[in-house]
Specification:
By secondary structure, the protein is of the alpha+beta class. It folds into 2 domains: about 40 residues; about 35 residues, no CATH class. The protein contains 2 helices and 5 strands; from the N terminus they run E-E-E-E-E-H-H. It starts with a strand and ends with a helix. The structure holds zinc ion.
Length: about 100
């Protein structure tokens, strides 16, 4: 499927973001927003899929941010676990928080 790729668009009216499959040589025209139906969605940038998880709100997050985010998710999960299961979580969390 060469020539086709997925782009991220953001609506200038309602800030809704969405993916759209477009042709590589397609002109950059405002696209219709699926949320408010206005032709005011603009291409943000094209991000290779293997990098996509490191981006959020158009900002690049580095690996340590990813680790901290995962650690805080585990901390939240740990609260709902019985004490006997928590040690495993603590080990994982301290591994994640440790600098490389
Ligand atoms: Zn919109």
């Amino acid at each position: 499927m060469s020539g086709w790729f997925s782009s991220d668009y953001r609506c200038k009216q309602c800030y809704f973001t969405f993916d759209k499959i477009t042709k590589k040589d397609e002109k950059e025209e405002p696209q219709e927003c699926p949320q408010c139906q206005q032709d005011s969605a603009e291409r943000i940038m094209s991000i290779p899929n293997n990098l996509r998880h490191t981006y959020h709100d158009g900002c690049k997050r580095d690996e340590s941010w990813q680790r901290l985010k995962k650690a805080s998710k585990l901390e939240r999960e740990m609260i709902s676990k019985p004490e006997k299961d928590r040690q495993e979580y603590r080990n994982e969390i301290s591994k994640l928080k440790k600098p490389k």
